[in-house]
Amino acid sequence: MGSRGAKDSIRREVWDRLLKSGVARFPLPPHGRIPNFEGAEEAAARLALMRVFRDAEVVKVNPDSPQRHVRYTALAMGKVVVMPTPRIREGFIVINPKAVPRGRLGEASTIRGAFRWGRRVGLREIPAIDLVVAGSVAVDRWGGRLGKGEGYSEIEYGILRSLGLVSEETPVVTTVHDLQVVNARIPRDPWDFTVDLIVTPTRVIKTLERQRPPGVMWGYLSSRKLEEIPALKELRRLLRS
């Protein structure tokens, strides 16, 4: 079984496990998604207690359901949240809590609310990132991570790295259910990034290895991705200018 097949097998195993155990939350089924899970609030609260989160002023957080609590907590703590739009089709949104009425922070932490209360920005307007929070389907103790298999998190990271907005040392964390932590080592491809910390509702796992791609790995991108993601065209223009 090649890398893709092995990754898909792990994803299916985790999705099935979450559904069978009853911890998967709406939207259901979890298959094909970054799965929402019982305890997502507790995982976000545990992350909020950590120095790596407390010290960050600008946090990049994925737009998926289980990390909504991370986005809300960051805004409530006065942090600027950088959120990629779904499939990066409309670039990135910057949500500054100072521009959001206090009673609207919960709304601003949703995708629809982010479009209302945040500001869609060009790549040059994205602030430097202090912490990356990634959604995951599965993770391992070596830092290996799987998303839903479409590569958007890796492209987002590559864009930010190409612009110098994240570095090799910028910490990457994920919040997941304990059932998403797998014992097997997850295969890695050149474009994959690892996570430094895995935060679950019950524990924090410091991972053992680090892999960071140096930027967008253009040679691995399909023509479809290049056409579908305007931010890639914008990045290419910026890098050529």
Order of helices and strands: HHHEHEEHHEEEEHEEEHH
Number of helices: 9
- Uncertain residue ranges: none
Terminal Cα span: 42 Å
Helical proportion?
25-40%
Which range does the strand content fall in? 5-15%
Shape label = globular
Rg calculated over all Cα atoms: 17 Å
- Taking strands numbered 1, 2, ... along the chain, how are they ordered across the largest sheet? 4-3-2-1-5-8-9-10
Average per-residue pLDDT, rounded, comes to 96
Biggest sheet layout: 8 strands, mixed
Total DSSP E strands: 10
Label the structural class.
alpha/beta
Task: Give an account of the 3D structure.
By secondary structure, this protein is α/β, with parallel strands linked by helices. The strands form two sheets. The protein has an eight-stranded mixed sheet with strand order 4-3-2-1-5-8-9-10. The protein has a two-stranded antiparallel sheet with strand order 6-7. Helix 4 links the parallel strand 1 and strand 2. The protein starts with a helix and ends with a helix. The mean pLDDT is 96.
Task: Please summarize what this structure is.
With 241 residues, this protein is an alpha/beta fold.
